[in-house]
Amino acid sequence: MSTDLIKERISGLGILPELTGIGESSSVEISTRFIHRMHKNIYPLICGTDHDRLIYFYSLLADCESSDGSAQNHVRLLKKLKSIGIDYKQLTDAQHDPLDIIRPVLSQDNVSAIAKLAPYIHDNVIAFCSFSAILVSDIFIAVVTDS
Asked: Which residues, other chains included, contact 35 with Cβ-Cβ below 8 Å and sequence gap of 6+?
């Protein structure tokens, strides 16, 4: 099922206010439960390269009154990384080294864009020099193996 179809069905059924608790007197409790259930039941089903679905997922969380703002940060980052085709779930997973995830998609065309986003990826552990070093080493290895 496409993300657009999911949006249409949720909108058509008019269930979002009830699910998220928007406008309810006990909205914080409902929102908290909604966020927990979304992370537990829906997030594992979304592919890390399906940026449209992830953007919608985090947009729904951002709409909740009890959201801490991190969902909106995910939406901004996903929109900027969308054209690069990176596995966002692996990139934001603490068990994966972000440089290992970025290396396969890093190129001369996107190194600057990815470097600008580095402070927002994985708690600031990536520096611009890391991207430059990866790119230079990949280019060097390619030249040496072509010789």
From this structure: 61, 64, 66, 67
